[in-house]
Amino acid sequence: MDKGFFGHPIGLRTLFLTEMWERMSYYGMRALLVLYMTGAMTGFNPGLGWSAIEANAIYGIYVGFVYFMVVPGGWIADNILGHQKAVLIGAIIIALGHFTLAIPLEQTFFLGLILIVLGTGLLKGNISTIVGSLYKDNDDRRESGYTIFYMSINIGSTLGFLICSYLGEKIGWHYGFGAAGIGMSFGVYQYIKFRHLLGSAGAEPNNMPDDKRANLIKWTKLSLVGMFIVIGMGLLGLVSFDPRAFAENFAYFLTTVAGLYFLYLFIFAGLNSAERKNLLLLFVLFIGAAAFWSGFDQSASSLSIFARDYTDLTIGNFAMPIGWLQFANPILVVTFAPIFAGMWAYLGRINMNPSLPLKFAIGLLFMALSFIVMIYAVNLAMVSAPVGMQWLLITYAIQTWGELALSPIGLAAFSKYSPKRYMGQMFGLWFLASAIGGVLAGLLGGDAMSEGLLSIEPIFAFMIQYYLIIAVILIALSFVIKAEDVQKAE
């Protein structure tokens, strides 16, 4: 048995480091994005000078597309490229995107975001698929292998906040973007150098007749040509759009796609009664996840602007970069993940493990509580700004507890209860919840910051209300959907 990496297959090291550098580049750049777009156009380190509504809408569109493109990225890997090649191509495109962002032009800004979206679509879902492929079906190391892999995300995001935030905020925005590109380049280099350690895991696409694959390749090429024509027209100024209106319509589109696909699976996919019951459970969890991420992704949106404009970030004589506040999340994930895992295991041993809807409700209640803290901080800022950074740190801590109650539980639920023959597509739906949440985060963040402190409280109060409503619905459903009633899909 291969135990070359902490008792796990040696190929996990290759994937761990690739994911670590990719998340370094993603979170490092994301921490700068809204700050750069809303930064003043004059003075030290000039930004683009856009309004909070416009910048947050673009942020939401970007996050939404990052997760939405995981679905076609997985399809291309399954049917044409294979997962290993898809990850390599995606990583290279991501690095090119960050280096493009480092060029101080408005056109290269949008081109860089587009390249990162396309590259992440090829890499994000497929690298997780390869992790599972390293293990045989009966290998009980799989879950702990994913836990080790998940740690790479937190290490990478910490590096991104540390390096990119400092360079971007203290030296120049484009130095921060360039640092993200260098980090991704490290990931590309080591993936190429150590890709052979993956063996055959995810190396080949699905088996199919050559003529069918050739037909799929033809239509994929045509789709790419059409996409690049639209992108080119936009970059040349031949097509323009209102970011706010586009974000709203994109949210409707993603929600419609998800709803129709759940409906298709329920009615036309030939599922048995147990699988349909499981699908209803996953649909409920999907709604909770989308709502949760709409608040969680405020960290790089409205909460970053609040940190910049209304928070005292000085420690002694040192003015801390805004992005460093987001250290709280990865550090607390590493600290509390074993505690949450142990707590669920203990409750399971004494037959008191909460049902899946109840765990999601706990996650949403934590999210509601975090925005109650923020409303208190906003009221303090109205009296005397800036306020202490402890309010944002408390907010991030509470949101991290919510994340630990919801995110790993959701992944496990979609892995366990999805119809087996639709497993890949169901994981695509899970990422679609993140896409919807990301777009909503941009829309809500823009509304919250549209008039400074005056507009924050009503938007955050609205968010608290819908978290509480969805949490109450999930708690009610937890009495209907008992854990022992949900059967594992075969």
Q: How is the topology of this model organized?
A:
Elements lengths: L10 H28 L13 H17 L1 H12 L1 H19 L4 H28 L8 H30 L1 H22 L15 H26 L7 H26 L4 H24 L5 H9 E2 L1 E2 L2 E2 L8 H22 L6 H28 L3 E2 L1 H28 L5 H27 L3 H28 L10
Low-confidence segments? 483-490
| CATH architecture call of the largest domain | Up-down Bundle
Provide the spatial order of strands within the biggest beta sheet.
1-4
Strand content: under 5%
Radius of gyration: 22 Å
Instruction: Give the overall shape.
Output: globular
Tally of helical segments: 16
The CATH homologous superfamily of the largest domain is called: MFS general substrate transporter like domains
Task: Say what the CATH topology of the largest domain is.
Answer: Growth Hormone, Chain: A
Structural class: mainly alpha
Q: Give the terminus-to-terminus CA distance.
A: 27 Å
Tell me the number of strands. Answer: 4
